[in-house]
Design the sequence.
């Protein structure tokens, strides 16, 4: 689900750490990469981590194991379309699924503030159960810690997942190739805007609900029709712009988007316009970006359109050779071309 | 490392939840079991979770995968003998190791308070690296979230681990058998007392340092000499008393301890006397309880005494049939026998 795994990520312009962790270090964008490179990557460096994906691949005599972890600190914990429990399960399920693997097992670590209502905990656990049922994964190990009132904000949930990858599938951020198309599985920005609305930070009401959903069934229905997918990634924190920048750098290619084709709900567009946000940077929790050869696009779209979470899937861009430093570009509605940078700093803290 | 996995644990006297999470729900004792049974277990119930161990076993075509997770919220984050980073790595390494499996991979989820010093984060990551090196495990996936100042206490780290179990080894909490001996790998209570001292809650100074250590190498050196171990478990939060109560219930046996034989450092004894603590309930982070046939004890002790973390290993009790409800009993120094209950409520919050 997250874009800020401990990646082998070289920031174009590393920003010196000024001695303190800033909110932007949790944004999933440039500052996060910088913190990870400067601190975690320095010490944890190993070939599996170095691969720079949202998941880790382990070889275990014949079958490949895929694992991933995410911490969930979303505020508020209940929002239109979901809650922190659904988010925690779907997020890790999705991170594993985009490798092509079938997620099977989750672990869950709960850090709870003293005084947290049991009925809220019950509701969260129940929505984890429902999401796990939908995704057909089992929660097989857990841990519960309680800290004093005021020492945590309600509840944080860290999940880790285990999935199994069929031999032969190589789908990851470094596989994008010139000539490939970029497909998004539906409208972008829904999650971020719904969470802002739930925080009453919009200043007006909206009917946007979060897209949070487990995407493994949709992804497996795609893989049943075509194995020619080069990259899948869920554009969560940092949004489509940040995710595509990661892929451009991992694959050393340029990615060009067509602004007119990017599916955005009217209400999301309106909210972004008023707030001065670019929807390309707003988090999604139920979308996948697919990068694949042009000739496979119709097969992919057929599979996606048949699925409840992929009805609005559409081609939004293409891959080309990068002459120098890999870039994400966008043909704008008004006819120009602009560079789409990675998110720098914190746009929406605690969005997941 | 933890004793409060989402176990299939029936509390002898379930305590009704009174609507709010209490500090005691994080103690690892009776209240924790009750919360887990009442909320998480109700929804997450499945055969792997039901096994009631600190680890989960997954069958994956031939080789068995062992997984475990822990959240770390220790206060203070730096203490004599270690820090939250060493604790996070060692804790998950140990939970996997006590299944008999060899831990290989860890994931790490960081939840950090805005303003947290980078130099502290660096030191924590470095001690995770050192502990991972000693344990020969790799950190292969991570996640970083930052919350606003005051919304978390410095840093919380949730780790999940993956290990591989050789076919044939069946070591878990339900394997204790009448006639077995109980061995502890060294002195008890060191971790809890060192952390209290670091919090300046003792009211006097002490030289006790935490025993936090990765125990996989010691455990593997034991398994190289004998495969006849029935149970291994690390007596962390809730201490030896809580861990043995868990095992007594899982195995449906009585466990009888000999107070005189329990190894306790003088300073730990003194601190416990002054504070009114029973060292049997004080957390350890570098100890293992072994339960095995009497005839295998000398082989076990030979292996343990040869290892830096097992020098003070000693037999502390035995297993007998349980006529009715499983119990932990103790022959006291003054000649009587008392029941050793599971920890109820919070003795030392945020000890791990």
Sequence:
């Amino acid at each position: 689900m997250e874009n800020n795994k401990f990646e082998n990520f070289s920031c174009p312009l590393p920003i010196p750490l000024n001695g303190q962790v800033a909110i932007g270090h949790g944004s999933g964008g440039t500052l996060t990469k910088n913190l990870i490179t400067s601190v975690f990557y320095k010490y944890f460096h190993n070939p599996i981590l170095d691969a720079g994906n949202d998941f880790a691949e382990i070889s275990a005599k014949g079958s490949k194991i895929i694992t991933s972890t995410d911490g969930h600190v979303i505020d508020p914990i209940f929002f239109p379309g979901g809650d922190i429990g659904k988010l925690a399960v779907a997020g890790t399920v999705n991170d594993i699924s985009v490798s092509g693997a079938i997620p099977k097992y989750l672990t869950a670590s709960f850090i709870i503030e003293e005084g947290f209502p049991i009925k809220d905990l019950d509701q969260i656990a129940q929505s984890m159960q429902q999401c796990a049922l939908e995704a057909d994964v089992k929660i097989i190990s857990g841990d519960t810690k309680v800290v004093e009132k005021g020492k945590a904000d309600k509840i944080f949930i860290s999940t880790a997942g285990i999935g199994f990858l069929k031999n032969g599938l190589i789908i990851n951020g470094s596989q994008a190739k010139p000539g490939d198309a970029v497909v998004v599985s539906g409208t972008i920005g829904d999650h971020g805007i719904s969470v802002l609305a739930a925080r009453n930070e919009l200043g007006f009401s909206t009917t946007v609900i979060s897209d949070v959903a487990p995407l493994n069934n949709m992804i497996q229905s795609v893989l049943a029709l075509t194995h020619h997918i080069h990259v899948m990634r869920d554009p969560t924190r940092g949004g489509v712009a940040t995710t595509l920048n990661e892929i451009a750098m991992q694959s050393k290619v340029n990615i060009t988007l067509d602004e007119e084709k990017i599916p955005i709900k009217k209400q999301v567009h309106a909210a972004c316009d008023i707030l001065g946000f670019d929807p390309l940077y707003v988090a999604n929790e139920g979308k996948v970006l697919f990068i694949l050869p042009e000739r496979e696009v119709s097969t992919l779209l057929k599979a996606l359109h048949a699925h409840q979470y992929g009805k609005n899937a559409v081609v939004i861009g293409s891959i080309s050779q990068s002459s120098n430093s890999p870039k994400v570009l966008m043909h704008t509605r008004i006819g120009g071309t602009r560079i789409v940078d990675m998110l720098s700093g914190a746009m929406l803290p605690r969005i997941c």
About this structure: Chain A touches chain B through 86 residues (CB under 8 Å). Residues 23-165 of chain A form a domain with the 60s Ribosomal Protein L30; Chain: A; fold (CATH 3.30.1330.10). Confidence is low (pLDDT under 50) at residues 1-14 of chain A. Chain A has two domains: 23-165, 180-339.
